[in-house]
Request: fold
Amino acid sequence: MNYLSKSENRITDIPTIKIRPNKTQPRRIFDEDKLRDLAKSIEENGILQPLTVRRVSQAEYEIIAGERRLRAAVLAGYTRVPCIVIKCNDRESAVLALLENLQRCDLGIFEEARGISKLIRRYGITQEQAALKLGKSQSTIANKLRLLNLTYDEQDWIVQAGLSERHARALLKIYDQELRKEALSKIIAENLNVAQSEQLIENMLYSCALPEKKKGRQKIVIKDIRIFINTINKAVETMKQAGIDAVCKKRDSGDYIEYTLKIPKTTTERSA
Reply:
């Protein structure tokens, strides 16, 4: 990415009809009331911060940063807006558009996750590369992408109820969609905070082990894999309490959970 030459690197008024939205813009929801407020401010004070754009043809520019300002300026009756033009390719434009929104800290949690996902899929980069470009850890990127495992309906409920990313991440502990919707409904109806939501989810998970009689025998039906994970953790803890130096490493890739368990041989076993 480069700014234009010194003679070109200046604020330029560009007709609004020549500026198109960024196709990789992560924001999908523009609050109409806030846009009208911004339009009134622009009417009174003008556009204080120029838009950042790139030239995509002789007659067209693409927004990199400032789509809200452009929309509000059009509402305010502006036909031209001040812009700074930079040179960058499609990938750099997508990264900068996402960064601009992340730095403003007003992207929705799912808009942010979808923006990161689109960046990775469109340009074939890894989570590690995305993390480096966005100034975040790989685990943070992985956790944000996992939010997209929630259904669109669940995402919409979470946004409409004003729940936090921590609420959403807590719900991901439930793999069964029907049970997850039940938990989400209770969280919203009872206005539960994060700690209360996590406790509700833990209680629901443990109550999922239900006896089912089949052919004269009782069969245990487990509705969520979380119970097995807790069993592994308790087994490792029991071994440590018994003096066995067991080491268990957990890796969450998003699609599956991988455990590596190392149990040292006893002195008796080694000498046998």
In short: Strands lie at 2-3, 11-15, 19-20, 51-57, 60-65, 80-87, 210-214, 217-221, 247-252, 257-262. The first strand starts at residue 2 and ends at 3. The longest helix spans residues 226-241. Residues 240 and 272 are 23 Å apart (CA to CA).
